[in-house]
């Protein structure tokens, strides 16, 4: 028996626009309140310390925004996508880095000016004050984390090492909070200010712990995910079927992904984001992975019955964002997995472009062909080396896309594949003036 899934109806505004507008409105509203408390608290002991205090209150607000962006709140994630939220978190982090440096420098120089003392002596004197010491520790952690997050350094670290270092930011938040409430600052200038700031931090903390800890733990305890079957699709591609309790109540949609851990198989801290390769039917979930690393290669040997810890569903790569009846689904390599799931849910005219080097490397091709026939859709398998031949084989050039899909401007376009392919498709869609709200692409990764 097929389980019918009922998804939320579309809102009056594009979901991503609505979510971004809501997020900005909340941030701006709190910014206005903070500015009002800053003005009512009065200036600092001199002009430099006044500016330092002004920067300091905004440092705290930026910290809160950073935590919310990576809280994995379902309402935001389904509408904006983890990839975009993570990028915003990254740039907010560098904003925090510079704001902390400016704040710390102004504090030291401001007190040195006030006391008519050398800057090094003032720095050491401030380090002996508990409130200032907590702030210095928080600042040092933030600066260090920013240093290892620069692309040059990040590329030379494994994800696990980088993530472990990144976790120190939570310690920086804790030290920063103590610093804020020990100092005689805007946050403690009145009972109203202290109450407001405390409630705001509590709300951010609840959102973060709820999204990152409580919700995943509850879902896994409730659904009790287990491996039901492991099916090799080819020499280097494998599908894992996961079952559990009450999966019809799991709010997963075609195109989304989970972060998977197979308990007792590999290291417990190793997690991988894999998309659903079939539409969730209320009875089981399926992921399909290509062996590109030790973790994905080991999936072939996961025993049936293995307990699974799954975080999610995540991602905005769904028909929630569809604005046209017709769709163009573009997949590259193992990026076909969410595209194949989306094809199950598609109802209007659909064209699928599947880019692989050879048909032998086309994972799930038989399933795609069956779905295409059942839905009266079109499938083009695009093979060959890019740039080879005469004329060159560039299937995602604008003229080639229009030749394959003449009405491309009247379709929602979903793109998933290697970064180079995705970038090429997006460039061509811009050149063809496909409206931005009709273009959907998402990077399925942890950082």
UniProtKB/TrEMBL annotation:
Domain FAD-binding FR-type positions: 220-320
Keywords of the record: 2Fe-2S, FAD, Flavoprotein, Iron, Iron-sulfur, Membrane, Metal-binding, Oxidoreductase, Transmembrane, Transmembrane helix
Principal localisation: membrane
Listed cofactors: FAD
Cellular location(s): Membrane
SUPFAM superfamilies for the chain: Ferredoxin reductase-like, C-terminal NADP-linked domain, Riboflavin synthase domain-like
TM annotation in the entry: 12-39, 51-70, 91-112, 124-150, 162-182, 194-215
PROSITE patterns from the UniProt entry: FAD_FR
Membrane topology reported for the UniProt record: Multi-pass membrane protein
InterPro entries associated with the record: FAD-bd_FR_type, Fe3_Rdtase_TM_dom, FNR_nucleotide-bd, MRET, OxRdtase_FAD/NAD-bd, Riboflavin_synthase-like_b-brl
Protein name: Oxidoreductase
Species of origin: Plantactinospora endophytica
